[in-house]
Structures are given as structure tokens and as C-alpha cells.
Amino acid sequence: MIFNGDGALDPSELWALIMSICTFLVTFSAAFKIVVEAIKKLRAPEVDQDNKIKDIESKLDAHDKYLANDKERIESIEAGNKVTQQAILALLSHAINGDSKDQLEKARNNLNDYLINR
């Protein structure tokens, strides 16, 4: 017992109790640390995989934006090509027939609209 026969504290037994409590705490904390390390090692592949997936998703989002910009630009170029080709056809028709003045004016107006509004 910690107390001797007259009710006073026995220092050697008190010291032994304190040492056993400290030993228990150190042992428990070491065991807890080992368990935490083991869990981290088990989860490491999952964490790495999650990080790789996040990187790939961010790259995919960036590529989607690039593709959307490229699509918009290509559509703009196609519209310009269409107007230019109509103007060239009107010029060819006028050069061949000599009487396609209305087509030339319409092609010129379309080309003006396109160049102003793009």
C-alpha cells in the first residue's frame, strides 16, 4: 500500500506508483504512434492515387477550356471563309457574265458586315 501503518505516505511505494504510471503512458504513446504510422502506410497508396486523380482532373479541365476556345475560333474562321468564298463566287460570276452587279453588291455588303462584326 501507499500508506504505511500510521497513515503516512510510503515514499518508495509512491515513487513506484508514479514510475509505473509514467511507464504505462510512455508504452501507450509508443504503441499509439506505431498504430498511427501503420495506418498512414496503409493509406499512402490511396492518398497518392487521390492526388494523381486531382492533378489529372485539373489538366482535363484546362484542356476542355482550350478545346472550347479552339472550337470557337475555328467556327469564326469558317464563317469568314464562307463570306469570302461567296464574294469570290460573285466576282467570278460577274467576270463571266458581266451582269451580276446585284450579286457583287450583296457579297460586298456581307463581307463588310463580317469584317465589321467579327
Please name the defining characteristics of this protein:
single chain, 118 residues, mainly alpha, rod-shaped
Strand content: under 5%
Terminal CA distance:
96 Å
What structural class is derived from the secondary structure elements? mainly alpha
- The radius of gyration over CA amounts to 43 Å
Largest sheet: none
Number of domains: 1
> Total number of β-strand segments?
0
What is the tally of helical segments?
2
Overall mean pLDDT stands at 86
H/E element sequence = HH
Poorly predicted segments? none
Short account of what is shown:
The protein is an all-alpha fold and 118 residues long. It is 88% helix and 0% strand.
List the helices and strands and how they pair.
Layout (H helix, E strand, L loop, with lengths): L10 H87 L3 H17 L1
Helix pairs in contact: 1-2
Task: Provide a descriptive summary of the structure in words.
With 118 residues, the chain is mainly alpha-helical. The chain has one domain (11-117). Helices cover 88% and strands 0% of the residues. It is rod-shaped, with a radius of gyration of 43 Å. The relative contact order is 0.05. The model has no long low-confidence stretch (mean pLDDT 86).
